């Protein structure tokens, strides 16, 4: 007797009919799946972004403090010409660049170790270790850092124990980066920024380095390249996509943050704080919107430069 | 005269596996040398020991008489053609080939000139500006070869260089590699698991098994005078008789090997010529190989022997299942070294 003859006849239930219907129409099936996320992305995300953009083309009436709904470039002019505003942009930009470079420099050896040398056990440990700080509340971490960096905080105690207080004081006396204490200096703010965004640099970098085959490094050494040459000519160029991805995180997160500059560091304003203040207490929505456009433009410029440098060629 | 490469009792251990187990060998300057063996036999590890990607746990590696055991790869005058070619994906073909000059700080114009020369040598001058990803497997192989030769190494190492190519391309590259080696006079050491490739290209072949060299000889000697049953089976898959079977056939318990093409196969009752050694069996299968067919015969004692029949000797009369008689002359049987107790 044929064993297959015993199998049950196909049930013609509604779910089976729906499956058959969708199977024959892959385009319809795909759009059905993509509709909810696209609706969310299109209206809630892009929609609000465009509303923001639109607001930046209005201006506030100086006298009545009411928004005049007529397209004008006056607000942008205000952002880009007032010395105080330019200061804020430059200050934020310099901080974002410094934080990005510091993150890249610290992250590279860690990511390289994770990708190439760590045993599977060690690698898992490192991944957890890198992500562990992300499981803690952002605010808690920022306030914790304020205490760590405070004048009587654990860090200055530690520096004092090492007998290095004069060094710390000398550093704090430096113009621009210094201040009365680490907690109220740009240096302290820089340290907190680097701490906060480091995982966002390590993870894409480790992923990129993991994709570089061992044989390429051996081929480089085989052809006479010393380890430093192999690093410069082979490892860094092939890690560029990861470096670019990581730096977009560190760069844009620093450009947009307003909590760290208001909790730790010197009193100078940052773009994020300006947006927060203008849309809140000051009620100048157009100015807040125009300031929000600045990071977007800066990131676009950054991505264009990165692309021109060939960061995405190896993708 | 100093050898291009010398191994002095070299061992490399991974955990409790002795990948290379007390290997000593000398490779002469200008030789085309093959390391042949199944995967995991230690041949690739030996190549990596020469290149410097691995360090031996004991023993010494000499290059032109100099001990290079503890020297890093970038201080050894040898270059490697990698199995996966290992071309730098972010560089053009020209930049890949010029890399060895670039890291040695050769002037830019000189780099380009010599790299182009190398590319002409491997007939790829027209593709200099392409990226490796835009090349076929055979072209990548040539780029990798040009890149490895640009520093004029004393020794060129090739790790299964033809493994990824299709049959026709592989045959072309075999001839080309051989010509290139004659033209340049560089010592070539190449690792392969393909015995045909090793026999047809190399001046001498080292047959590896379980981290040791079983036999180091010319291809002809390997084929006609295999020293051990492993070599006899691995190179040209000879029939090997050991122990009781050897005693019954040859009158001595010493193992021996007999090549399929030296065995005559006949139906019972047919003339056996003057062949002295005979045994009866049952034909299991006939595999057609063109000029020759290979007959699998189960001897009455249970072992399976292979006998080759040429197309014109009328192999049509053999059908699977029929009784056959195998015969050969005593002088065609090769005495083998008894295997040392493992």
Automatic annotation (TrEMBL), chain A:
Residues 89-306 form the ABC transmembrane type-1 domain. It is a multi-pass membrane protein. The keyword Transport applies. Pfam families: BPD_transp_1. Its main location: membrane. One of its GO terms (cellular component) is plasma membrane. InterPro entries: MetI-like, MetI-like_sf. PROSITE patterns: ABC_TM1. Signal peptide: none annotated. It is found in: Cell membrane. The chain crosses the membrane at residues 39-60, 88-112, 124-143, 155-174, 186-209, 230-252, 258-276, 285-305. Keywords: Cell membrane, Membrane, Transmembrane, Transmembrane helix, Transport. GO terms for biological process: transmembrane transport. Belongs to the binding-protein-dependent transport system permease family. CysTW subfamily. PANTHER family: INNER MEMBRANE ABC TRANSPORTER PERMEASE PROTEIN YDCU-RELATED, INNER MEMBRANE ABC TRANSPORTER PERMEASE PROTEIN YDCU-RELATED-RELATED. This is Putative spermidine/putrescine transport system permease protein. It comes from Povalibacter uvarum.
Automatic annotation (TrEMBL), chain B:
Residues 5-235 form the ABC transporter domain. One of its GO terms (molecular function) is ATP hydrolysis activity. GO terms for cellular component: ATP-binding cassette (ABC) transporter complex. Pfam families: ABC_tran, TOBE_2. SMART domains: AAA. Keywords: ATP-binding, Nucleotide-binding, Transport. GO terms for biological process: putrescine transport. The keyword Cell division does not apply. This is Putative spermidine/putrescine transport system ATP-binding protein.
